Amino acid sequence: MEADELIRRYAAGERNFTGADLTRAKLIGANLAGINLWGANLTHANLAKAKLWGANLTHANLVGANLTRANLCGAKLNDANLRQARLNRTKLYGANFSGAYYDRSTRFSIGFDPISQNMRKV
Q: What's the pLDDT score for residue 113?
């Protein structure tokens, strides 16, 4: 799926994009609050400054994704793959990271502790 198709369908009221393939999608600053991207492939997607509060990213593949300055408040990232992802200056209040994967190259906001969020280092 192309980024512009996702944005068009979201604007039309659709919220369920379970399993969507958005590899390398450019969604910079997109307003996707409450979207369901359960199991979606967002490998190397650019979601910088995206508004994803309340989004369901459970089991999503976010390897190498850019989430810099995104708003993930209240988002579900359970069992998401965040290896090599960039979450610098990302708003994470109330986000659920339980079981999510990260590695030594994953970048988090200052003060964020992945261990206290029940994340798994691989």
A: 96
Asked whether the CA dihedral 33, 55, 102, 94 is positive or negative, the reply is positive
CATH class of the 1-122 domain in this structure: mainly beta
For 6-31, write each residue's pLDDT tens digit: 999 999 999 999 999 999 999 999 99
Give the residue carrying structure tokens 């209240």: 74
Cα-flanking dihedrals φ and ψ of residue 115, to 5°?
-65, -40
Domain ranges (residues) in the chain: 1-122
Tokens of 64: 């190498």
Residue 97 CA to residue 79 CA, distance in Å, equals 7
Q: Output the pTM of the full model.
A: 0.96
Task: Quote the CA–CA distance of 98 and 27 in Å, as a whole number.
Answer: 25
Residue 21 region by backbone torsions, left for phi larger than 0, else alpha for psi between -120 and 50, else beta = beta
